[in-house]
Amino acid sequence: MMRDPRTALVAALLIFLGLLPVYVMAAGNNFLLILFTRIIILALAATSLNLILGYGGMVSFGHAVYLGVGGYVVGILAKEGINTGIIQWPLALLVSALFALIIGALSLRTRGVYFIMITLAFAQMLYYVAVSLDRYGADDGLTINHRSQFGLLNLSNKVVFYYLCLALLLGVIFLVARLVNSRFGFAIRGAQSNERRMRAIGFPVFRYRLVCFVIAGTLCGLAGVLLANHTDFVSPAMMHWTRSGDLIVMVVLGGMGSAFGPLIGAVVLLVLEEALSGITEYWQIILGPLLLLIVLFARGGIVGMLRPRHA
Amino acid sequence: MPEPLLQIEGLTKRFGGIVASDNVTLPVVQGELHAIIGPNGAGKTTLIGQLTGELSSQSGTIRFGGQDITALPVWQRSLRGLARSFQITSLFLDFTALDNVALAVQAHAGHSFHFWRDARQQPDLRDPAHAALERVGLGRRADALVANMSHGEHRQLEIAMALATKPRMLLLDEPMAGMGVEESARMVELLRELKRELTILLIEHDMDAVFALADRISVLVYGRIIASGEPAAIRANPDVRRAYLGEQQAVTLNG
Question: How do the domains of chain A map onto residue ranges?
Answer without folding.
Answer: 5-305
